[in-house]
Amino acid sequence: MPKTSKVVQREQSHEHVTESVADLLAHEEPLDYKSSSLNVEAAAGKKIPQIEVPENDGRPAWNSKLQYILAQVGFSVGLGNVWRFPYLCQKNGGGAYLVPYFILLLIIGIPLFFLELAVGQKIRRGSIGVWNYVCPRLGGIGMSSLMVCGFVGLYYNVIIGWSIFYFFQSFQYPLPWSDCPIRKNGTIAIVEPECDKSSATTYFWYRQTLNTTSTIAESGGLNIKMTLSLLVAWIIVCLAVIKGIASSGKVMYFSSLFPYVVLFCFLVRGLMLKGSVDGIAHMFTPKLEKMLEPQIWREAATQVFFALGLGFGGVIAFSSYNKMDNNCHFDAVLVSFINFFTSILATLVVFAVLGFKANIMNEKCVAENGEKILGYLNSNVLSHDLIPPHVNFSHLTPSDYADVYSIIKTVKEDGFAKLGLEPCVLEDELNKAVQGTGLAFIAFTEAMTHFPASPFWSVMFFFMLINLGLGSMIGTMTGITTPVLDAYKVQKELLTVGCCIVAFLCGLLFVQRSGNYFVTMFDDYSAGLPLTVVVILENVSVAWIYGTKRFMQDLEDMLGFRPSIIYFYLWKYVSPLCLIVLISATVIEMAISPPGYNAWVQDLAQERFQSYPPWALAMCFALIIVAMLPLPIVFVARHFNLMSDGSNKLSVSYRKTMMKDISNLEEQDEARFILGAKPGDTPLAGVARKPYVTPAGNKSVDPNSLSPNVCYGTSYQNTAINSPPKSKNNKTLEFRQRM
């Protein structure tokens, strides 16, 4: 045994040892048991097992590293990268927004993503089992995470259902949202008034797709088309995850890679369109003064937070199927940067297409207002002398119209407003910020109607949205099923089918005619604040309760190298502080902003903001409370020993390893060597204290055997081995290990 060994040092120093054998084995230098003096049975030719975590403990594993990376990318890269990130860029100063986003990605995103990957891979359990291990009294973290996954999955799959509906509607020419429908009244044919007041794509979305009501209080009954679309969406998700990672891993090969093919195709096609460069230039033109506003930093932090899927449990669940020595640090950095560059790519595509759309709309505006001016000239309301000689109304350009508009506004200063002329400025069209469903189902679809071969591009676009949503839904469902399968002996297929059926029935709330308003409600309240609280508790439980130094040592043992010291300070100080500021800003924002939704008013053919009625407001706060309720309940229940600490549901690989190793040790000699100062000596008995009740409830554990990093004095008893009575100094030796 090496002279620097902790066991040798304690033997020579005559110090009394209070650590358990499990702790000594966990921290001891690697030994060659075949040549060690501890190998009592080697002379007899008996084989002694090595101390290592078995790779195959019955837990499923990824077929390849590529499959795992694609699963993490598919989960983190979702619909938000396509319709949320471009909107935030446009709203918060274009290229200036990328600076705070990238900074916060480095100091919050990557460290916390690395933390979740590491704990999942080390403990090899889902979110509930992981946080039961790290700190049993904070085991509610995993349950809250599961609750949020359930809420998000309910409405997220509705969006996939909308995409499925548009996907099938795209197989026709012209596209059904290209023109307003014609209403026939006897021999007179008129354009549908609601469509005429808005636009063809807006009308198709609100009236023919959602058939939405004017308020959230009006249910309107089920929308049959959306109900069938939701059913198809849940069938697809169920088939993708029914076999766990065995089925979802194969799906990820397509669902994770196909969106990149579509995005690159759209980028190439978009750059060939007139006005695309204007859109991209508008996006990347930095408004540096925006960087000084706190709002931009808060929104950047929120986007980083949700873009990586932190707190949902999917990241932990996926990493729990990895090998113990997988380089999760490399995975964290790789997936984070893939996510970031995907957001940039999607933003380029969106602004290239929106730049083309803005030019189309600006030319339409110029043509309509040019006709108004001609009418005023023919009726002598305006003098022909006001028109510059180079202006040709048969081919009126935006720059010529701008000159005419400026002259008329100057001359007709008093009566200009009565003329009803619009400025028709391209910048104004580009500044019309749209996000979410408004971007995907209205603005982008309208732009695609002007594409050559528009049905093909529409099919590609909505098939891409389906795959983006499917990748995120697979991660969300894995975050739900993995903790349950870890904790209970349930058949995987039955659990998956049962979850999908229950989710579909609950999802009927979102496919009634007022369902769009409930999607907005769940999106605003079910995940934001609860997930932020979950992640900060994850950070605190690892960095401050389990111990950052101990966690760094675990990482070194697991990865084979010690991560940069910068992670120590980020986990311990920077990330918790940033998350506290984010929570405070979120609460302030919720308190300042009146809770409400944008309702489609049919008579006006436009959206109007409306406040939630009292019952809906109560529902909003109920979503927040229900999602966070497991946190205090589990804490109180375990504080008063009202529920098990979950040790009997932790990774069997840990139990198998220690049981196998301990059972092959010579109890008497090992006990004397490790626990005694000299062979034959017996350690002094510890001071008697009140025992802790183990999860089984029938054995007591001496507090002296607890590791100092165990949360709130909770330990996991592994096994007890009684030594044969060979001498008067022999006593029962109980081996304990904190799982």
From TrEMBL:
<feature type="transmembrane region" description="Helical">
    <location>
        <begin position="612"/>
        <end position="637"/>
    </location>
</feature>
<dbReference type="Pfam" id="PF00209">
    <property type="entry name" value="SNF"/>
</dbReference>
<dbReference type="GO" id="GO:0015816">
    <property type="term" value="P:glycine transport"/>
</dbReference>
<protein>
    <recommendedName>
        <fullName>Transporter</fullName>
    </recommendedName>
</protein>
<feature type="transmembrane region" description="Helical">
    <location>
        <begin position="456"/>
        <end position="482"/>
    </location>
</feature>
<feature type="transmembrane region" description="Helical">
    <location>
        <begin position="300"/>
        <end position="321"/>
    </location>
</feature>
<feature type="binding site">
    <location>
        <position position="81"/>
    </location>
    <ligand>
        <name>Na(+)</name>
    </ligand>
</feature>
<feature type="binding site">
    <location>
        <position position="339"/>
    </location>
    <ligand>
        <name>Na(+)</name>
    </ligand>
</feature>
<comment type="similarity">
    <text>Belongs to the sodium:neurotransmitter symporter (SNF) (TC 2.A.22) family.</text>
</comment>
<feature type="binding site">
    <location>
        <position position="77"/>
    </location>
    <ligand>
        <name>Na(+)</name>
    </ligand>
</feature>
<dbReference type="GO" id="GO:0015824">
    <property type="term" value="P:proline transport"/>
</dbReference>
<dbReference type="InterPro" id="IPR002438">
    <property type="entry name" value="Neutral_aa_SLC6"/>
</dbReference>
<feature type="transmembrane region" description="Helical">
    <location>
        <begin position="98"/>
        <end position="119"/>
    </location>
</feature>
<feature type="transmembrane region" description="Helical">
    <location>
        <begin position="494"/>
        <end position="513"/>
    </location>
</feature>
<feature type="transmembrane region" description="Helical">
    <location>
        <begin position="146"/>
        <end position="168"/>
    </location>
</feature>
<keyword id="KW-0769">Symport</keyword>
<keyword id="KW-1133">Transmembrane helix</keyword>
<keyword id="KW-0812">Transmembrane</keyword>
<keyword id="KW-0915">Sodium</keyword>
<keyword id="KW-0813">Transport</keyword>
<feature type="binding site">
    <location>
        <position position="472"/>
    </location>
    <ligand>
        <name>Na(+)</name>
    </ligand>
</feature>
<dbReference type="GO" id="GO:0032328">
    <property type="term" value="P:alanine transport"/>
</dbReference>
<dbReference type="GO" id="GO:0015820">
    <property type="term" value="P:L-leucine transport"/>
</dbReference>
<keyword id="KW-0472">Membrane</keyword>
<feature type="transmembrane region" description="Helical">
    <location>
        <begin position="567"/>
        <end position="592"/>
    </location>
</feature>
<dbReference type="InterPro" id="IPR000175">
    <property type="entry name" value="Na/ntran_symport"/>
</dbReference>
<feature type="binding site">
    <location>
        <position position="74"/>
    </location>
    <ligand>
        <name>Na(+)</name>
    </ligand>
</feature>
<feature type="transmembrane region" description="Helical">
    <location>
        <begin position="333"/>
        <end position="354"/>
    </location>
</feature>
<feature type="transmembrane region" description="Helical">
    <location>
        <begin position="228"/>
        <end position="246"/>
    </location>
</feature>
<feature type="transmembrane region" description="Helical">
    <location>
        <begin position="68"/>
        <end position="86"/>
    </location>
</feature>
<keyword id="KW-0325">Glycoprotein</keyword>
<feature type="transmembrane region" description="Helical">
    <location>
        <begin position="525"/>
        <end position="546"/>
    </location>
</feature>
<feature type="transmembrane region" description="Helical">
    <location>
        <begin position="253"/>
        <end position="272"/>
    </location>
</feature>
<dbReference type="GO" id="GO:0008021">
    <property type="term" value="C:synaptic vesicle"/>
</dbReference>
<dbReference type="GO" id="GO:0035725">
    <property type="term" value="P:sodium ion transmembrane transport"/>
</dbReference>
<keyword id="KW-0479">Metal-binding</keyword>
<dbReference type="InterPro" id="IPR037272">
    <property type="entry name" value="SNS_sf"/>
</dbReference>
<feature type="binding site">
    <location>
        <position position="468"/>
    </location>
    <ligand>
        <name>Na(+)</name>
    </ligand>
</feature>
<dbReference type="GO" id="GO:0015293">
    <property type="term" value="F:symporter activity"/>
</dbReference>
<dbReference type="GO" id="GO:0005886">
    <property type="term" value="C:plasma membrane"/>
</dbReference>
<dbReference type="GO" id="GO:0046872">
    <property type="term" value="F:metal ion binding"/>
</dbReference>
